[in-house]
Amino acid sequence: MIFSGLSQRLQDIVSKLRGRGRLSEAEVKDALREIKLALLEADVNYKVVKDFTAKLQERCQGAEILNSLTPGQQVIKIVRDELTALLGTAGRGLNFTRSKSFFLLVGLQGSGKTTTTVKLARSLAAKGKRPLVVSLDTYRPAAIEQLEIAAAAAGVDCYRAPGAEPLTLARNALDWAQNTPHDCIFFDTAGRMHLDEALMAELVELKGLVKPQEIILVLDAMTGQDAVNIAQGFSQRDLVDSIILTKLDSDTRGGAALSVSAVTGKPIKYVGAGEKADQLEQFHPDRMASQILGMGDVLTLIEKAEAAFDRDQAAKLQEKLRKQQFDLDDFREQLRQFQGAGSLSQVADLLPGGAKLGKMQMDEKELRRMDAIISSMTPRERQAPAIINGSRRKRIALGSGTSVQQVNKVLKQFALLQKFMKQLDPKKAKKGKLPFPFKI
Amino acid sequence: MSLTAKINKSLGKTRAKMAQAFQAVFLKGAAPDWDGLEEALLLADVGGETAGAIVAGVRAKKSTDPMAALREELIGILDLASPDLPVKVFVGINGSGKTTSLGKLGFALARAGKRVYVIGTDTFRAAADRQLEQWCRRAQIPCLLGKAGSDPASVLFDGLASAEGKKADYVLVDTAGRLHSNKNLMQELAKIMGVGRRVRPEGLETLLTLDAATGQNALQQMEIFQQAAQPSGLILTKLDGSAKGGIAVALAAKYGIPIKYVGTGEGPADLLPFRAQDYVDSLLPQKE
User: Fold this and answer.
1) Interface residue A252 vs chain B (CB under 8 A)
2) Of B154, B92, B145, whose CA–CA distance to B122 is shortest?
3) Cβ of B48 under 8 Å from any chain A Cβ?
4) pLDDT tens digit string along A52-89?
5) Does A196 sit within 8 Å of B240, measured CB to CB?
6) Using one digit for the tens of pLDDT, what is the confidence trace for A148-164?
7) The pTM is what?
8) Interface pTM, i.e. ipTM
9) Domains and CATH numbers, chain B
10) Is B267 at the interface with chain A, CB within 8 A?
11) Do B131 and A142 touch (CB under 8 A)?
């Protein structure tokens, strides 16, 4: 597909930048061009991209390149940090007042307002709130029934307000809810185009009547360049306090998120990912940033690896490797670091020469099992694996709750790793360029 | 009202801005601003690949009137057709406008004196059947609507049999909205299509509804819907917003799929047959 090459292209550019202390202007330009393309293909608005890359250029040129990162990855890290910053903060819930809070859900037709209304109410009910949902959509056929049925299926209270037009419905619902125990009331409004003056005016009137705590703009994550106009249309009339992105379970890169954040400056609070009532998640700007750049795994790993990697241990390990004293204790130490960093095959991709290791295909569960096996060995066994004979293997298997075959597998993998390390050029090791443990 | 007039009316200011962007590209007496053209196309969601190809195509024409060359290039891409077949299955992602488009088309066909039959196979979404029922009642069209939770493929099978009995000229089939990324739902669609094509080996076409505001993800949608349902045409919906639906240009260029109808509102008359000429005219500045 179109996007598959993108991550690779970025990687290529980035790998060319390896090994310098500071980036040249031309290098930054090259990298930024790829990033610009990446953002455009992710549907970030063209104008937002332009502003954004201009800002990046400044930051990249001044940036010192950390020793732990290749300059290229440093550039991507800056991009990601900037993206994340622009996307706002994570995990903020809705604002409530002490007694009754009102919320209006607004957006274009088909953006997912009704589904989101039910999801929001359900998630708050699970947190001990008493939500009520009310449909004000008198336009689309069966819209009110849709909310009613979906709410009933999710176990959420729904009030069918009498009346023929949205303002009457809202007024009646407000009256009715005065004497009920509900503490947060969600109004699902009809889908409307931001260009439709009459319907936008109606929304302004609704706002005046309901006095909502928050007006939530519901936006399809697959929206293209127009996300900017949509966001502007609603925010110009002061009709956006927060944003929910829907349909993120599609494979969209979701650049619209960046566009709306840039235009409105309002927080994205939740994302919808599925048709079921429980498929509403908190918004994570960092994840979104990675997704927009289309290199989620790598970026997350850079961070994870940075966090998980203990520099002192690495120095010790390098020393051991140089003297070829790498034993099962060290192996276990490595495994534990990998456990912090995510699945090993992904980490392996980051390692120079890691492709070989990647073939071992180990996941987190596997890592834990290996850890258990090595931990069931005696210290002597760990230092001199050669002494592990048949009966020792049986004991280790029993102790770790695994089988002899699995113990054999670990020993074999360790032997392979040892062999791999012996092949390393000791001269490079002195320069501190040992490819293992991972040097990012 | 013609398509151009209708889109123009609804686009208003945005359209003017859009036209300005294209206008600025080809200023009289100055060299054409090719980067500017690419930018204008990107802003219309045409996408990098197709925008690049269009710019290259226009440049290759070496015309003294680059605006006319652009018009020609766009019409060349969009002027596609596929036969109008009696059984039309509406597919697309959630909220793209399947049911509304179907309702509007049914309305138009019934008004033109055709015998129309509607089959509703969205047995999943809450009140989907009632939404369609209201449309059918409005247009006085007989319909078979699957009960919530029932198997969509068998609803289609029964529906096609009953449409046969009613000697319908057109059978419009609504399906549940599904994201292309959902494997199970795409398999379900393949099954529905399998049943449809077995019962009506000839005379069945699939229409993919596409929200005009959709970005580059539409290419993935197309790719995967093509595997499951082989759409023969697009319905570009919600063109009454500020979105230009430029992604349909990318789809036409890449897949040769024609846009068959465009939706411009929620009223029964807000669906029009697509004409490449009109659409391009609505995108570009008026001829002087």
Assistant:
1) yes
2) B145
3) yes
4) 888 888 877 665 544 445 566 677 778 878 888 888 87
5) yes
6) 999 999 999 999 999 99
7) 0.78
8) 0.90
9) 87-231 (3.40.50.300)
10) no
11) yes
